Amino acid sequence: MSHPASPHGYDPDVFYAPGWQPAAPRIEPLAVVALPTGLLLGPVGVGIGAAALARIRRDGTRGTGLAWAGIALGVAVTLTAIAVVVALFVGRAATAPLPADVSEPRSAHARQLVLGNCLAELPDDGEVSSVRVVPCADPHEAQVVARTDFAADAVWPGQDAAGARVSRVCSPAVLAGDAPTEGIELVVWSPSEASWAQGDRTGLCVAATGEAVEGSLID
What we know:
This protein has 5 helices and 6 strands, in the order αααββββαβαβ. It has helices spanning 29-41, 43-59, 64-95, 159-167, 193-197, and strands at 106-109, 118-119, 130-134, 140-149, 185-189, 202-213. Keywords: Membrane, Transmembrane, Transmembrane helix.
């Protein structure tokens, strides 16, 4: 059977379907998992994100952005965790008690001092942080001759009360019987409100000799 030609120049028996596109590739599951894993588990998220990228390249799946976001989060979380661990380690090292008589000169935080420590010199009045600790056989101008510690869970008592508490252990009686007392000044070091907030609970009685001496002032 014949049909008259279409006035538009195309055969009316030929049908044209609308154009179609192939289905979009699926999203790589590991890329989806990488994001929360990087946020919660740090380095694990980095590994999963890297595995997701490898699968995306191999299989042609989607999710490159998610995989990279998981890696970025994992790296950030890992670096943060490392910084926290280092800070905790340094903080503990800065407050770990010293031996009663150190074997060589060293700088230390005042909170590290224990009974018997000898100081190269007495710091100026005011808040004390770093001090120079030396063997007591070396020349030194001060020594810790008494120490008292407040309870770890104690409430800040106020500066006057804290000083009074330390003063009770800071008397000439703490010196050795044959130690010279002439020219020796006993100085009270008590926590300040700021150092108390940082965990300082140490009170010290420091004997200042006024000049360099050798040997210990206590038994």
